[in-house]
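User: Reviewer 2 asked us to show a designed sequence for the structure in our supplementary figure. I'm pasting the structure tokens here. Could you produce the per-position amino acids so we can include them in the response letter?
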């Protein structure tokens, strides 16, 4: 609990610092009579951005603390995966391959959609400096299960970091709550599925999701 409290404090302080600086600068502008419409709008925009960040942090921690039981029902997985891929197609070079036209599984559509989005965004953020990021999303059948893979050509995950990837509140990013993959793993396992990854330093990472048909 001490570690979690430290993480919460750290996440909250990140947006609070620029908020404080913005307000101090705006206060000085008001005092010298130099707070024109342009400066006022710039300060408001900056503050709203940081408020949204705080809101996202609060929502993430709240979601994990009261993680609801998945709403388990039949769904068609390939069309859901295509929708999420289309949603993130503007993020970069995202390539989709499937040997299936459809795959009927039992699961929570909302949780699965969030999980796919989270993994795709993480894949793009793992890009190596100066190299174009490519993410491959694939779907195939394996022993009465649907196997989904999300492969990137990024920098890979260091061995000492890999052990903590699914630990709640662990993150290698400068922002974020470190809850996305922890929530995803919990959700997939509640659907009787599996979530794991393979990585090689400098050669990218592939996340796998396996769900029973």
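Assistant: Here is a per-position design you can include in the supplement:
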């Amino acid at each position: 609990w001490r570690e979690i409290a430290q993480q919460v404090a750290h996440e909250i302080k990140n947006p609070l610092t620029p908020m404080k600086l913005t307000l101090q600068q705006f206060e000085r502008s008001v005092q010298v009579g130099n707070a024109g419409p342009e400066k006022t709008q710039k300060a408001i925009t900056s503050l709203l951005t940081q408020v949204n960040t705080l809101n996202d942090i609060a929502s993430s921690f709240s979601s994990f603390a009261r993680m609801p039981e998945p709403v388990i029902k039949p769904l068609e997985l390939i069309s859901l995966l295509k929708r999420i891929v289309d949603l993130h197609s503007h993020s970069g070079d995202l390539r989709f391959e499937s040997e299936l036209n459809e795959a009927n599984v039992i699961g929570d559509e909302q949780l699965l959609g969030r999980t796919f989005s989270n993994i795709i965004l993480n894949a793009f953020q793992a890009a190596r400096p100066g190299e174009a990021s490519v993410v491959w999303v694939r779907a195939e059948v394996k022993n009465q299960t649907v196997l989904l893979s999300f492969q990137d050509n990024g920098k890979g995950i260091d061995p000492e970091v890999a052990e903590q990837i699914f630990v709640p509140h662990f993150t290698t990013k400068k922002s974020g709550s470190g809850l996305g993959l922890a929530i995803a793993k919990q959700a997939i396992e509640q659907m009787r599925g599996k979530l794991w990854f393979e990585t090689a330093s400098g050669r990218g990472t592939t996340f796998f999701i396996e769900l029973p048909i």
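For the response letter, you might also mention the following. Strands lie at 73-76, 93-98, 104-107, 134-142, 145-152, 194-200, 204-212. The two ends are 38 Å apart (CA to CA).
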